[in-house]
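Narrative summary of target 7.
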Amino acid sequence: MSKKLPNKYNKRGLLRRTLPYIIQNKIKIFICIILALAIALLTTYMPRITKRILDDYVATSSSFEEVEYDAVLRLLMLYLGATFIVVVLRYSLNFILNLTGMKIERAIREDAIRKIDYLPVDYYALEPDGKIVAKITSDSAGVRTFFTVQFSIAQAIVNIIALFVGFIILDYRLALILLCSLPIILLWITLYRKKIHAYYQDIRETSSRITGKLNELISGTLIIQAFNQEKYMLKDYTDLVDRYNYMQTKANSINAYLGIELLEFIKRLLVAAIVLFFGIQFLDTTDLATVAVTAGMITTFTDYLDKMINPINTIFNNLNELEDSIVAANRVYMFLDEENDTHVFDGKEAPNVINGDVEFKNVHFSYVEKKEVLHGINLHVESGCSVGIVGHTGSGKSSLMNLLLRYNDYQEGKILIDKEEITKFNKQSYRKNLGIVLQTPSLFAGTLKSNVTMEREYSDQEVIDVLKEVGAGYMIDKNPLGIYQPISFRGENLSLGEKQLISFARILLRNPKILVLDEATSNIDTETELLIKKAMDVVKTGRTTFIIAHRLSTIKNCDRIIVLDHGVIVGEGSHDELYSTCSVYKDMYDSQYKTIEEYENKTKYGLI
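Modeled conformation, tokenized:
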């Protein structure tokens, strides 16, 4: 069985949590309440019209000639008018209620989209993309369903109360018979909700995992095919689908056992009780002229009973959706209630222009408490310098740059930019002065220009110039659409080298004062790497540049090279200095070029 997350909110808590969104639509909801009350009153009143026609005009007349047709016609017209008004009111209520539900769902989705900007980076490392998408889309629709279902149930309860008052007015003894059935109905609904809730919680969680797995399958199709893992990955997916179908079957079984048939059984019991009541009343009456059971009474009772069963049926039919929506609403609200990265927009504005002087002072950092990744880092990089950062896997290279970019926050020490601690600034304004090129470039469906500008306002010539500067001018020339050539999702119609060139152009156009290149040339062929190095030589002037690299050839010409080992700086200097003084750097350099030399020799002699 899949692990089920506990709901944070019960039904009452969800109502309170949804209240701010409801208040945004208070006028529409007030209109819905007025319409619901009007429908309840008219629905209760209409059977009384039928009773008056039968008892006051039809039953009292000994022949058709004695019937007061004018009075009957007026009552029929009144009944017809009331019926028409009820139809109009119900249409208006459904329209406004659905419109309000859609506005609530939209507000929830907008808040969920905004939430993405506030969540810490660690959240995305732990939560699959597909599950996040499911929370924003299908689970936000659950809040709309929760609202509309709750309103429908409340409306059904109002109808039941109004009809019960009608029963009391009709005959209080009939009302008492119906009142006796209330504990049975409440017990039935309670048992049903208790049984069905756990299944719907599991169904929602499994559905979310299916979405996440599907996203994983689609994004990893090439790797799955390359390693012939289609059957293995498909089994994971089909296991989840089987789990989903099993839980749906269990939920449907409960619906069959405790569903509409049970309601029909309760209705038949009520009818039998009322028939028994009328029968006893008739048999106890010695004078047939004083029989209290009239045609109008029977007709009105039957009409009231049907009208009372209908809202009970409405409640039952909505219970399925209610339980499903409670689980869905809990999921999206738990997403919205995730702890924000408060420094994204909070804090003072960073300067629009900085020099780019960077200093790490005794910086300690850990992802998990008591397990430090960086231990007392001290590093000063003057404005305009280029610094290479090397080290074995897990030495802390990317973690160090994540702190500079404020993807994570350090626990001890300080990081200063132009002598000011970076934690004083809100992250949004602070990052305007920084740029990063990752090992895996991120491209979006659009055009070459939109992927370079990221929807900012730049002229065509500026885009062309920066593409030529990084050596990507040929991409403009090879397509007649130039910078308006289409780019597919994730840039699947481009080579890895072309994707990275666009990433460089994107950063250069933004012109940050501090640049981080995180394994930026690892996926690029030698010829393209040479083009990028030429562009980097131009843009490094007057810019502080940090280059994380495993390929030491890319950082040999940096002003300084920093060697990290297990979160500690073990070497600092130029290539020649480190090669002679730092054993870690020397071993890395020798092993890398020894591997290259062996590969070249094997190729030369036809051994591979």
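The longest helix spans residues 69-118.
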